[in-house]
Design brief:
alpha/beta; TIM Barrel; 6-stranded parallel sheet; 8 helices; about 45% helix
Amino acid sequence: MDSEEPRKVAVAIEEFGLSYVVLTSVDRDDLPDGGADHFARTIREIKARDTGILVEALIPDFRGDLEAVRTVVDAGPDVLDHNLETVRRLQPLARDPRAGYDQSLSVLRAAKTMRSGLFTKSSIMLGLGETREEVLRAMADLRENGVDILTLGQYLRPSAWHLPVSEYVAPETFDEYREAGEAMGFVYVAAGPLVRSSYRAGEFFVENVIRERAASRGG
C-alpha cells in the first residue's frame, strides 16, 4: 500500500482539471478495513484541493463491515457506488462466495442513512441467464434500499476462466428496463449494451443534478 497515493491522486486530478472523478480499487480483503481508510484519505485529499470536484467512490462490500462503509461516507464523497452485479439467483455463480445479494443491499442501505444528501448508485450486468422478472425484482430491491442511480449493461466474458455469456440482450430490452427504472423513481437510469458502472454520459447527468441541488440549497 502506497501511503502517498491519496496525495498523488489528488495532485493528478487537480493537474488534469477534472470536475468529476470515480475512485475504485481491487478488493483488499488482506487489509483489516478492506482499504476503507485509503479511500477516505484520497477523498479528503481531493476535496482539500478543490471542494468543487465531485467524487464518486465505487467501493467493495468490505465483507459487510458497515463501519468501513461509514469511514468512506464520512470522508464526503458525493456518490457512493456499490454494484449488485446480478440477480439474486445468479449471485453464487457470478460473485465471490464472500459477497452476497443481501450483503450488497445492506451496504447501500446503510450508506444512504449515514449522510444526508449522499447519492447512492449500483449496477447490474445482464446476459447471465436472468429472467425479466428477476431483473425487475433486483431493480425494485435497489430502489427500496434507497439507491438513486442505476446502470444496466451487457455482460461480456473477460476470459475463458469466466462465466460464458448466456444471452446478448436486445437494445429494446434495455430501453424497457430504463423506462421501468424511471417509473420506480430512480433519479437516473443508464441502460444499454455498452453501459458500464462508470458511464460518462451518466456521470455528466449526475454531476448536473448534484450541482443543481447544491445551488438550490445555497451551497
